[in-house]
Amino acid sequence: MTSETDLLSADLDHLDDEGGSAAETGSGSGAAVAEFRPGNGRIRPFDHDRVAAAVRELLIGIGEDPDREGLRKTPDRVARAYAEAVEGLGRDPADVLTTVFDEGHDEMVLVRDIDFSSLCEHHLVVFSGKAHVAYIPNENGQITGLSKLARLVDLYARRPQVQERLTSQVADALVDVLQPRGVMVVVEAEHLCMSMRGVRKPGACTVTSAVRGQFLSPATRNEGMSLILSSHRR
Ligand SMILES: Nc1nc2c(ncn2[C@@H]2O[C@H](COP(=O)(O)OP(=O)(O)OP(=O)(O)O)[C@@H](O)[C@H]2O)c(=O)[nH]1
Ligand SMILES: [Zn+2]
């Protein structure tokens, strides 16, 4: 019997035969784009036509008529929506954490309540909420632009994800790129796969955290956590 894994690898081989190599447009438009390099979660370029074809197939599968007026443009729309939802795939965190200021600052920096939405990799529906990102600058007191922390959250949110991995990827990228003395990331989110279907528990909030370096010390961790929680008391 052919296993699911065999089928998947046959499919990937087939893709390679089709030319899943450099410089695919991924949009079917034929426009010139930068050379595609796999990495950071992306193993091939986004293929708009393939996603649209799959959505058309999905519509047929659920018993709809993909050619009726209201649905005619849906495969294209959904493909564009997915392109946006996974635009963090393949991006390098070092390209986001670009701005570094030599400020000589050696205390905690926290950006809390960073809105994000991501795609649950089990059901491909949205999970969304807020991320809180704190770090203690490196020995040189270097700080980064505040917006870069929010950009980093988006980079890892915009792909098929699980919340735990999103949380630790943000923390580890900060460690790798900025070499701070400590990092703490807390993510709170509602998963649509738990509210609109399945167990149907709207409002259930999942909280995950990742701590690195000096935040492993209970006192520093508590200080970070109380600064994050203070936003809920306003
Ligand atoms: N740990 C973790 N689990 C998640 C996340 N997003 C979704 N899940 C869970 O992934 C699990 C998938 O479980 P399965 O039993 O394979 O799928 P299912 O039959 O659709 O499960 P139900 O959601 O319980 O109906 C579910 O329990 C989801 O709640 C996440 O970010 N982290
Ligand atoms: Zn899910």
From TrEMBL:
Alphabetized InterPro entries for the sequence: GTP-CH-I_C/QueF, GTP-CH-I_N, GTP_CycHdrlase_I, GTP_CycHdrlase_I_CS, GTP_CycHdrlase_I_dom
Keyword Disulfide bond: no
Pfam families xref list: GTP_cyclohydroI
Biased composition regions of type Low complexity, renumbered to the chain: 20-34
Domain GTP cyclohydrolase I, chain residue ranges per copy: 52-228
UniProt-listed Enzyme Commission number(s): 3.5.4.16
Protein name: GTP cyclohydrolase 1
Species, as recorded: Pseudofrankia inefficax (strain DSM 45817 / CECT 9037 / DDB 130130 / EuI1c) (Frankia inefficax)
